[in-house]
Amino acid sequence: MLSRRLLRIKVIKALFAHLKSxxxxxxxxxxxxxxxxxxxYDLYFQLLILPVEVARYAEQRQELAKQKKLPTYEDLxxxxxxxxxxxxxxxxxxxxxNDRVAARKLGxxxxxxxxxxxxxxxxxxxxxxxxxQRDERSLDDDRRLVETFLNELQQCDALDEALEEMxxxxxxxxxxxxxxxxxxxxxxxxxxxxxxxAPKFKSPDxxxxxxxxxxxxxxNYNSCQEYIEKFTANWDVERxxxxxxxxxxxxxxxxxxxxxxxxxxxxxxxxxxxxxxSTPGSSTFIxxxxxxxxxxxxxxxxxxxxxxxxx
Length: 311
Description:
- With about 300 residues, the protein is an all-alpha fold.
- It contains 16 helices and no strands.
- It is elongated and about 80 Å long.
């Protein structure tokens, strides 16, 4: 399922785009936001089928080698351990995966060069060579191979380029979606014949969380900025970047509007997000301002937490 952090990132990007573009249609921007959430979930399936495509390419190469005029013994008797990988086979045969891929028109057919590149990188890696040489044939062994392959994707420039070409919305999603894929594979057991895919959302409340955070942050943007100014009076206004103020205002909205989310969770999440989406040193600035805002809002009785969010 998509993490709350990724959902927060989607919200802050949508707010940034709406405000910077001068858009005046909140519903249209919200529709674009929810489409970006859907696309993130598409990436989950796109990555699930990637090792399947590489294995199919490997099988095609083995079949072509057998058709040589003078095939070698190795050509006629290839090592099929990777081609027969049990984890890859379960993914390939999964109705849940195939239905989503077909419905959303996903796949890698338009990127044969990427598949060749990934296959070459895989077969030249030490972990692949060790895997192929081991006599062991178990689900755990097969899973380790696929997990290592997926983890290596985070350093693959060719994949980054392909994903950016497919969807600009995927540019920052890869690390979060890879975690989803790895968690899905970790739940596989030898007795399973169907892959249990992760739902889009962890909680039925998540879609409402996204919409409410976006809408209230946008509607209350000006009032939040005025409130923030009380705690940044001693700062050089020109040195406070737009994204810093936007993050603080969105965090403030979350603090007030979601009584079940602990204050510490909200602060930790937005400070962490600021490390990647604002300037160096922004997280320290945001942390200091938010601490003052929390104290002030609490004193005013505007932060009320209940249930598991009670502090």
